[in-house]
Design brief:
The chain is of the alpha+beta class and 105 residues long. It is built from 4 helices and 5 strands, in the order αββββααβα. The strands form 2 sheets. A 3-stranded antiparallel beta sheet has the order 1-2-5. It has a two-stranded antiparallel ribbon with strand order 3-4.
């Protein structure tokens, strides 16, 4: 499920409430603490809460008790190979130049 698809499941207007944490989507609709997709005024369903959960007063295991509803795929958060390859090429070039400088002294 993408970020846009997850946003539909915000718990509003009869929609199920889903949240994403560390690439897993959890259904939180059955919890009274997620009424209408709102978790006690602190978190909203339909979003990736991976970063927010780090400062939550409970451990991640609490979230992991909810039923898994799917996988969250966020292309923004995952570096693409198109961005990694130029950086890797640059790093190799720098290392090769350093070796050349050392060997030609």
């Amino acid at each position: 499920m993408t970020r846009e698809e997850l946003a539909v499941f915000d718990g509003q207007d009869g929609c199920p409430a889903y949240i994403a944490v560390n690439g897993t989507i959890y259904g939180v609709s059955a919890s009274p603490r997620w009424r209408d997709g709102d978790h006690e005024g602190a978190h909203q369903a339909g979003r990736d809460l991976t970063e927010e959960i780090k400062s939550a007063p409970h451990v991640r295991a609490v979230i992991e008790r909810f039923p898994v509803s799917g996988r969250f795929e966020d292309p923004v958060a995952q570096p693409s190979r198109n961005r990694i390859l130029p950086l890797l090429t640059l790093a190799i070039a720098i290392v090769l130049v350093m070796f050349w400088v050392v060997l030609t002294k």
